[in-house]
Design brief:
single chain, 453 residues, five-stranded antiparallel β-sheet, four-stranded mixed β-sheet, globular, PCN-bd_Tpept, Beta-lactam/transpept, Penicillin-binding protein, Beta-lactam/transpept-like
């Protein structure tokens, strides 16, 4: 009887171990099954280390790239290939944001029931929100200069343009030496950070509006220079005279925003930089952006330059695009996406507020309205509406000093105040000079392609 009892206990223990094992396996299968399936040793998915499944299309159904057993096939247009190289990737898998690295799970068509099995064994097609013709227009507008352009729908989050330069033809890649400093493999839109210059004044202005009782009435007399002693000063290209917040943003007065930063203090600037999402990484369908970095001195000239967008300020272009999108959208930022729903069920799920479009309140609605009005005034009274024919545009330029003998980086950020074309944008031309003239002209060419497509 004792033997039977012992055997029963042993069987019970073995059954418990089996149940625990099945539970652990089931958890790992559901949690990591896609990683197992996409492992490069899986011969159903890879041949000689190259992904053989899946195709990539733009929002209009234009083929951008297809994986085959004989390698990657790209779009026939060399301009489109160059414009979208940082999202299609290249044959040597050098681009971290390339589709075969970022969208592996989508391409192999993995699911819990069928694994990677499909009737034709070709994998799945992925359709992007990008418009290849708009991206081609952005690439041509750069004319070989370094930088990036991003455009997205600030109501739906769909990115329609994402171009990084320098680039190359993935069908005919160049020989790139190990000591190359061009950053050609880097997707500047998602993976880079840059000195923002005066576009950061939008954050300083928002902090002022929401924390200072005299935000709209506080004035200074700009003489073109504020001396902080010991050879430290904040300068402008010219004296602006008496300026308030609206006028200071319009003429991008460094003296005003430097003293405003001191008035706000480093703690408030840090809070509003965080609220603006500039220190966070954004997940764009698995492509994670590089977070910005900032220092917040206690006071003095360094705090002044921080509020102006200099000192140690570094921002990511995608994050800045989302912030100006929030200004356009009543203070609520819609997080960007680059992959369109692939089925009816996915399209319905994407509309759910919890599962689908993700949003973040960055500033108050009244603050957004004020900044929108000021940014519209920037265009009318400073940059010139004739630079953007037919466009209802609200914008802020930036001329970011980068040190040494290098020309400043040129920025232009903003949005279209247009119900039929609700698009926010960011343009960065590295060492391009003045923001409004250099980056503004690129923005116009891209936005004209957007509204006339």
């Amino acid at each position: 009887m004792k033997k039977v009892e012992k055997r029963a206990i042993m069987c019970l223990l073995l059954a418990c171990v089996l149940l625990v094992g099945v539970g652990v396996f089931s958890y790992r299968y559901f949690a990591y099954g896609d990683d197992w399936a996409s492992y490069e040793g899986n011969r159903d998915v890879y041949t000689n280390g190259d992904l053989t499944k899946g195709a990539l299309y733009d929002t209009n159904g234009v083929l951008l790239m297809r994986n085959t057993e004989n390698g990657m096939i790209f779009n026939e247009d060399s301009t489109v290939r160059r414009a979208l190289m940082h999202i299609t990737g290249d044959k040597d898998n050098n681009i971290s944001t390339g589709a075969n690295r970022a969208f592996t799970d989508e391409f192999i068509g993995y699911d819990f029931i069928n694994g990677v099995y499909s009737l034709n064994n070709a994998g799945e097609d992925v359709t992007l929100t990008l418009d290849s013709q708009v991206c081609a227009a952005a690439y041509e507008a750069f004319d070989g200069r370094r930088g990036t352009v991003g455009v997205y729908n600030y109501e739906t989050g769909e990115i329609i343009c994402m171009v990084s330069s320098p680039t190359y033809d993935p069908e005919d890649p160049p020989e790139i030496s190990s000591d190359d400093t061009s950053g050609v493999y880097i997707n500047r839109f998602t993976s880079g950070t840059f000195v923002p210059g005066s576009i950061f004044k939008l954050v300083t202005a928002a902090a002022s509006i929401e924390t200072l009782s005299d935000a709209y009435t506080w004035e200074i007399n700009c003489t073109g220079r504020v001396d902080y002693g010991h050879g430290d000063d904040v300068t402008d290209l010219s004296a602006h005279g008496t300026v308030d917040l609206e006028r200071a943003l319009e003429v991008s007065c460094n003296c005003y925003f430097g003293q405003l930063a001191e008035k706000l203090g480093g703690t408030v600037l840090e809070e509003y930089t965080g609220k603006a999402g500039l220190t966070e990484s954004i997940d764009v369908n698995g492509i994670k952006t590089k977070p910005g970095t900032f220092d917040y001195p206690d006071g003095g000239v360094n705090l002044a330059w921080t509020g102006i967008g200099q000192y140690h300020d570094m921002v990511n272009p995608c994050s800045m695009m989302v912030y100006v999108g929030a200004i356009a959208n009543g203070g609520e930022a819609v997080m960007p996406t680059i992959i369109k729903p692939g089925s009816f069920v996915e399209s319905q799920v994407s509309k759910l507020p919890v599962v689908g479009t993700q949003t973040k309140q960055m500033i108050e609605a009244s603050t957004a309205d004020s900044l929108k009005s000021m940014m519209a005034g920037n265009v009318v009274n400073n940059y010139g509406s004739d630079m953007f024919p037919g466009l209802s545009i609200c914008a802020k330029s930036g001329t970011a000093e980068v040190g040494g003998d290098r020309r400043p980086n040129a920025w232009f950020v903003g949005f279209l105040d247009d119900t039929e074309n609700p698009y926010a944008f960011v343009v960065l031309v590295e060492n391009g000079g003045y923001g409004s003239s250099t980056a503004g002209s690129v923005a116009n060419r891209v936005l004209q392609a957007v509204v006339n497509r």
